[in-house]
Design brief:
By secondary structure, the chain is of the alpha/beta class. The protein is built from 16 helices and 23 strands. The strands form six sheets. The chain has a seven-stranded mixed sheet with strand order 15-16-17-14-13-19-20, with helices on both faces. The chain binds nicotinamide-adenine-dinucleotide.
Length: 487
């Protein structure tokens, strides 16, 4: 049954002045999820005004402990409504229920608690000095909220990536206006109900739905009363967001695209390497910023590795999210399916050997309208080929043999992105050498997607600016004020 997906402004669900709506369709079968009410300038203005007013209302007067206790209540309430969040996330993304119920919803909820624990234990520096007239002075730092934070989100892990930003922003005492992806508006919108239920004051959390250019996204990032913009999405969009932030000298935090390499040495634990690379290439239908799209395998095990990955890829059964044997869901939208299939065509045109996949799987009649693509593996392309240099963001990878450490480091680094890598070897010295040499923000050894949320997360080169996670999030979500006392 379809529903209306509204904006959440100042504690209330509202439509819009323009009457403009768009259809949100389920990527599994193209059924209608709901009509989304696109926020225009009036709604964005109202959301920012509500967030500004809330900074100076009851929210701004809470002690850190009271604020954090209130935010911890969100975790309990999201977990109490786990099924509602699960259904909403799955209707928007089509991802398998086992994935959403183990990753998206629990980690989306846990992000609030991670950052309340962080802020309660964050310290600041203090120095004493003697003044020229022989007195004493002491200075100390105070962390103050940055103000109204605009949060612009992608569609691949909608709740999790949004609370990864809303969690620290709110824990630090800011107020937020969230612009979810147009493709996945539901869970951010639903979270408004949870905010009201646990008593978060009106205006602290706001959601404006709509698109980027000439819509809610650009109206929000251009708004002069926004004090900081935090964004996850494509590098091209990040460039536009950074330009918007330049007006008014507003800081930006950018988590952007990647073209991540997995490097597999002949001495690896073979089964673990195959299982891990299978996940990093195909989990969430390849729609993970940290996912692998370039695989480099040391020549002695190249053929064996390609055959093993092929078998795994062909075992990834596409299907309905709640079917127990479903291993892979559809892509998020027709637009994204078209983009990924255009890369499948380019790979063919540029001379790839298609090891497996390369097209659309044959689905039952009731799922034929969905946004399906086959898990795909290519070999034989030069390092300059489109699918080896550009982010596809689908369930696909190119595999290439290598002969030396130096050669593979050069190939891994020869890319404008620098988000993540994973290295598979039993030689710890070699693993540590490569971890230093590869230009990325995140490096996994014999693993992938394993996260300790106290550690820095972010990309190098064109994969981002800034680090979020643990204390690193405080760099963006607070400002340090120095106080000097002479006595
Ligand atoms: P996208 O850049 O197309 O859109 C992201 C958001 O920006 C959407 O909400 C969109 O409406 C909004 N937007 C678009 N243009 C805008 C503009 N001019 N002004 C303001 N807002 C605008 O990204 P996507 O397709 O939703 O997500 C996929 C991308 O996200 C991939 O490149 C992926 O690598 C990246 N990603 C990165 C990370 C990370 O942590 N580095 C995590 C997840 C996804």
């Amino acid at each position: 049954m379809s529903k209306d997906i509204l904006n959440f402004i100042n504690g209330e669900y509202v439509k819009n002045a323009s009457g403009k709506t768009y259809e949100k369709r389920n990527p599994v079968d193209d059924s209608l999820v709901g009509m989304v009410y696109e926020a225009g300038k009036p709604e964005v203005d109202a959301a920012v005004a509500a967030a500004r007013a809330a900074l100076h209302g009851p929210w701004g007067k809470l002690s850190v402990v009271d604020r954090c206790n209130m935010l911890d209540g969100l975790v309990d309430e999201i977990n109490r409504r786990f099924d509602d969040f699960l259904q909403a996330e799955i209707a928007d993304t089509g991802k398998p229920a086992h994935l959403a119920s183990h990753v998206d919803i629990p980690r989306g909820a846990a992000n609030f608690k991670i950052f309340t624990d962080t802020i309660k234990n964050a310290s600041t520096e203090s120095f004493e000095m003697t003044t020229p007239d022989g007195k004493t002075a002491r200075s100390y730092g105070v962390r103050v909220p940055r103000g109204v934070i605009a949060i612009i989100c992608p569609w691949n892990l909608p709740l999790l990536l949004m609370t990864w930003k809303a969690g620290p922003a709110l824990a630090c005492g800011n107020t937020v206006v969230v612009k979810p992806s147009e493709a996945t508006p539901s869970t951010a919108t639903l979270l408004g109900e949870v905010m009201n239920k646990v008593g978060i004051p009106k205006g602290v959390y706001n959601v404006v739905n709509g698109f980027g250019v000439d819509s809610a996204g650009s109206f929000l990032t251009a708004h002069p009363d926004v004090n900081g913009i935090t964004f996850t999405g494509e590098t091209k969009t990040g460039t536009a967001i950074m330009k918007a932030g330049a007006d008014g000298i507003r800081p930006v935090s950018l988590e952007l695209g990647g073209k991540n390499a997995a490097i597999v040495f002949a001495d690896c634990d073979f089964d673990n390497a195959v299982a891990t690379v299978t996940r990093s290439c195909f989990e969430n239908a390849g729609q993970v910023c940290l996912g692998t799209e370039r695989v480099y395998v040391e020549r002695p095990i190249f053929d064996k590795f390609v055959a093993a990955l092929k078998e795994k890829a062909e075992g990834m059964k596409p299907g309905r999210p709640f079917d127990a044997d479903t291993k892979i869901g559809p892509l998020v939208s027709k637009i994204h399916q078209k983009k990924v299939l255009s890369y499948y065509q380019k790979a063919k045109d540029e001379g790839a050997t298609i090891v497996t996949g390369g097209g659309v799987p044959d689905m039952p009649d009731d799922l034929k309208g969905g946004c399906w693509v086959q898990p795909t593996i290519w070999t034989g392309l030069p390092e300059t080929a489109s699918v080896v240099t550009e982010e596809v963001f689908g369930p696909c990878c190119h595999i290439r043999p290598f002969d030396s450490e130096e050669e593979v480091v050069n190939m891994a680094n020869k890319n404008r992105y620098g988000l993540a890598t994973s290295i598979h070897t039993q030689d710890i010295g070699r693993a540590m050498r490569l971890a230093s040499a590869i230009e990325v923000g995140l490096c996994w050894i014999n693993s992938w997607f394993l996260r300790d949320l106290r550690t820095p997360f972010g990309g190098s080169k064109q994969s981002g600016i800034g680090r979020e996670g643990g204390l690193h999030s405080l760099e963006f979500y607070t400002e340090l004020r120095n106080v000097m006392i002479k006595y």
